[in-house]
Amino acid sequence: MDAAQREVLDSGDINRALSRIAHEILEKNKGVRDLVLLGIPTRGAHIAQRLAKAIADIEGVMIPVGTIDVTLHRDDLRSRPARALLPTVIPTSGIDGKKVVLVDDVLFSGRTIRAALDAMGELGRPSQVQLAVLVDRGHRELPIRADYVGKNLPTSLKEHVRVSITETDGTDSVSISGTPAGGGE
Amino acid sequence: MKRHLLSASDLSYEDAVLILDTAEELAKLVDGPVKKLPTLRGRTVVNLFYEDSTRTRISFEAAAKRLSADVINFTAKGSSVSKGESLKDTALTLQAMGADAVIVRHSASGAAHQLAASGWIAGSVINAGDGTHEHPSQALLDAFTMRRHLRDSKGDLAGVRVTIVGDVLHSRVARSNVLLLATLGAEVTLVAPPTLMPFGVEQWPCEISYDLDRVLPRTEALMMLRVQGERMNNAFFPSMREYSRGYGLDDKRASALSPEAIVMHPGPMNRGLEISAGAADGLRSVIVEQVANGVSVRMAILYLLLGGASIEEVSL
Amino acid sequence: MSGYLLRGVSVLGEDRVDVLIDGGIISEVSKKPLAPTGVRTIDCDGLIAMPGLVDLHTHLREPGREDSETVESGSAAAALGGFAAIHAMANTNPVADTAGVVEQVYRLGREAGWCDVRPVGAVTVGLQGTQLAELAAMAHSAARVRVFSDDGTCVADPILMRRALEYVKAFDGVIAQHAQEPRLTEDAQMNEGFVSSQLGLRGWPAVAEESIISRDVLLAEHVGSRLHVCHVSTAGSVEIVRWAKSRGVMVTAEVTPHHLLLTDELARSYDPRYKVNPPLRRDEDVQALRQGLADGTIDAVATDHAPHPLEDKECEWSSAAFGMIGLQSALSVVQTAMIETGLMTWAEVSDRMSTRPARIGSLRDHGRPIAVGEPAHVVLLDPRGKSVFTLEGNASKSRNSPFLGMELHGRIEATFLRGRATVLDGKLAG
């Protein structure tokens, strides 16, 4: 981590945030009935797995977890070369009539979530859709808000938020850097 | 990826695996409830077919439509092509119509290359079979089918033993397959009478055999090529019967294959000539599946060539 | 001013001399500066003088395809390429198989006046390969035809070839054979080899050329006739011609500039400008052709200048016409392939592009040395110059050349035909 980066969440913070979100999901939905978690690859998918595990630790029930790739529904496809598709795995029980919690690492413009809602529309008709994110950094461009937020992180548009999680990056951490360029979020 | 898909040799190892992986994801979507994706909305794809090939045309058409592209079919029959309009004039017409991609099938080897290199067309050119040259999307769907059955839909085809049998000399499918399979690490053996092997074939990245029975037991994927009866008029072989005896896949030969081996054919088949009905419909046959896989693979090609920014758009 | 003084010119790359051209002949050659009056002086510092070039193999397309070339436009291109004489091939429409047609072409050449146009007569009626054309009538016509060829098609019938070889002995003619076994090359598109196997273009095996040359040199030996082999393109053909010459067979051979430089790898572009007959071959063949030209096995460079309208080249490879234009780029390409590589001297280039082709074509007043009293057919070349073969500078009515737009070695400054400048400062001198 170079000097320009500043860690805002460490591994312990992240664990606590996810644990809290797990409780909030259970509280809001009054248990695990009809709950499905759909993570947005790559990091959102892993966070969804962790949330499911946290919920299982509390309730003793493993709820269905899937992934939903939004690439084909993005509205900015033509701004970059074609991207590789990431897996979409819908739990065998499906999403029709379920309460789906979309899970992503960072909520920013809201466009990814818009694409995810479109993608989900092709796959079924949930009774309700909720949104859980590890970090909300503001600057929404669409009328979208998260139901569960690990950490609200006021940022400027020039700043860059980097989420690292052990499954993909070898460590759990959220940091901000002042330079606009850099890796994925 | 390059802007055009003209030859299987245009594809690097990474490109080839990316197309197969993308096709796999798309197959999962379209095999499920999703019939249509918005990805290519507003893009125009032209099927420019100078040669009859209903199966390839509808495969590309289905692929483009499932990605929400607008599809225009331009076939030689009933158009100005049959009255002798030049490739150039047709290309300029398509350019004026704003084609983002032109999928071209032509009886002349190199026609797709010429369209791509001419500057007559701004969009991507996809070779859907040119003369006796190449048919790269067929090779990709064949590789996709092999990977599903022999490599659990993952990675490359390293070490897979593929045997391609028949009229290699006149086969664009064989040419594209040899190139792509070499890229993906498969071990290819071509089997044909020496008259149907191209002069210079010993420099291809594959093995050559004239003895199908020797090759069959170790074959994991067996691809039978269509053989045309009129070849015997040019002394390529004495009779269809002799050809069938030496190089046809009959029930007895099919049983010499290992139980896990798959039998493929790019179609259309000559049942009873290069392949018996029993072998074509047998348990090892994946011929029908090849057709279905063709749509997913062509969706992947269209998405990867057209789904992102064009090279010019990125450099802006 | 009727004459020209070539001041300080290097004849065939040798020491500098002054050369006076006057009255249609070379009237003086001197190591000391000349100071004649009433002539135009050309400062030849750095320039080489060679005898005017002679092409054994040009397609002028007139009569019949005046949209792609005429005798006038083709011979103008020849003058710009340094040629003083060209042989117009017989595959026109109507075919040059009668005294009438060859006289027409001959007359058109004289009227144009850019260079001497020597018609080639067809060997068989209509190039059909079945019946001998009236060879003697063409030989005895005003066009005085000495070279006979069915170029474009091969005289494949061995008995017809034998008779033709024999028949032209009566008037010191020569049969120029387009060596292409027809059955082995049905619908053939390019050299048969690794590249054709990959491109899916029908192969044109070397043996289709070599088998005909083998047969023909044996026939020529048997009947004691002169044989000329057009545009040899393979290493095997060079070997066969070398062997035949060693046996004393009266065989001569030519090679095109493009076969000295280009290979079948270029077909990978599917650009029909690279589609020629015979096809471009492998690099091994190119090297053997260069060696054969350098050691004299191959007697001459001949352009096979083959103009075609744009629509016959802007199409699918398999539908495209064979051939490329070559008169204006010939000397530059030869310089690139033979001089820049150190394989030949300018004296040898002059021998292969002027002296020997003139002898093969029985042109008595061409291919002569630059010496006092000789006819003043001279080309002036700046070997260190560069020239770009441009559309504007192209005098041919066709543009099917892969060399268009390329910067090439050497620059032709002037061409003289019987003492008259047809080209000055690299431009046609009207």
Structural class of chain B: alpha/beta
Q: Which oligomeric state applies?
A: heterotrimer
CATH topology of the largest domain in chain B: Rossmann fold
H-E string of chain C: EEEEEEHEHEHEHEEHEHEHEHEHHEEEE
CATH topology of the largest domain in chain C: TIM Barrel
- Rounded mean pLDDT of chain C is 97
Count of helix runs of chain B? 12
- The number of distinct helices of chain C, counting runs of at least 4 residues, comes to 10
| Helix proportion of chain B | 25-40%
Distance between the termini of chain B: 18 Å
How many domains, in number, for the residues of chain C?
Answer: 2
Give your account of this protein's structure.
The complex is a heterotrimer of chains A (185), B (316) and C (430). In chain A, strands 3-2-4-5-6 form a 5-stranded parallel sheet, with helices on both faces. In chain A, strands 1-8-7 form a 3-stranded antiparallel sheet. In chain A, strand 2 (35-39), helix 2 and strand 3 (65-67) form a beta-alpha-beta unit. Chain A contains 4 helices and 8 strands. Chain A is of the alpha/beta class and 185 residues long. The two termini of chain A are 16 Å apart. Helix content of chain B is 40%, strand content 14%. Chain B has 12 helices and 9 strands. Chain B has a 5-stranded parallel sheet, with helices on one face. Chain B has a 4-stranded parallel sheet with strand order 2-1-3-4, with helices on both faces. Residues 311-316 of chain B have low confidence and may be disordered. Chain C folds into 2 domains: 3-49 and 373-385 and 407-428, Urease, subunit C, domain 1, CATH 2.30.40.10; 53-360, TIM Barrel. Chain C is globular. Classes of the chains: A alpha/beta (185), B alpha/beta (316), C alpha/beta (430). The interface between B and C is medium-sized, with 24 and 23 residues.
